[in-house]
Design a protein that fits this description.
By secondary structure, this protein is an all-alpha fold. It contains 9 helices and no strands. The chain has helices spanning 7-27, 30-35, 41-69, 72-90, 95-106, 112-121, 128-143, 146-156, 158-181. It is globular, with a radius of gyration of 18 Å. Residues 186-198 have low confidence and may be disordered.
Length: 198
């Protein structure tokens, strides 16, 4: 199945894995950081609500814009928001700053419909479900190790954890920009355009 992946899909997978490491590394430590920097249990609930509300407000309008103007810019922006979140945590020492950080976290859903459309667009019509499943199986099995990396970095210090996550996010964003976003339209098959069935 992996052999059937287009070059564009393989590059997207690499960038996506790096971005998900950015998400996974600080994931389980967020509540500890928040509750020691201006949030109690009730305010943690508000932070989760802020994140989800931001995400929900993004989905439909951004999906429409991605279909109209192209998917790649919106995916690039999404990867940028993934990267920015752990950076904002470095300065989040009050509830107000935490709220801003969780708005940024909600914006990680900014280009999710466009990213999923890129995956489907890279698969031939008769193999879309299998390609999608294989993509997520590889990505999620790989990213599971991010929890252990996050534990190791947390032991070195919370700020080391967040900085490590941001580095992974920056690498994933740069990888997407270099191999997918900037790919010229004139050369063969482009990321995000459907592969014709054989």
């Amino acid at each position: 199945m992996v052999k059937s992946f287009t070059p564009g899909l393989r590059e997207l997978l690499v960038s996506d894995i790096l971005i998900r490491f950015c998400e996974r590394i600080p994931y389980v430590w967020l509540i500890i950081w928040a509750t020691t920097h201006g949030a109690d249990a009730q305010r943690w609930g508000w932070l989760a609500a802020i994140e989800m509300t931001t995400a929900m407000l993004c989905y439909i309008p951004v999906a429409h814009l991605a279909d109209k103007y192209g998917r790649r810019p919106f995916v690039l922006a999404t990867f940028g928001f993934f990267t920015l979140f752990p950076v904002t945590l470095l300065w989040a020492d009050s509830f107000g700053w935490l709220a801003l950080a969780f708005v940024v976290r909600g914006l990680k859903e900014f280009g999710e419909p466009a990213r999923k459309a890129l995956i489907i667009g890279e698969a031939s019509a008769e193999m879309r479900a299998r390609t999608y499943g294989a993509y997520y199986l590889i990505r999620d099995c790989t990213v599971t190790s991010g929890s252990f990396v996050g534990l190791w970095l947390w032991k070195l210090g919370p700020r080391v954890n967040f900085a490590g996550a941001a580095v992974c996010g920056a690498l994933g964003t740069l990888w997407f920009w270099w191999f997918i976003y900037r790919a010229p339209a004139a050369k063969g098959h482009q990321p995000g355009t459907p592969v014709k069935a054989a």
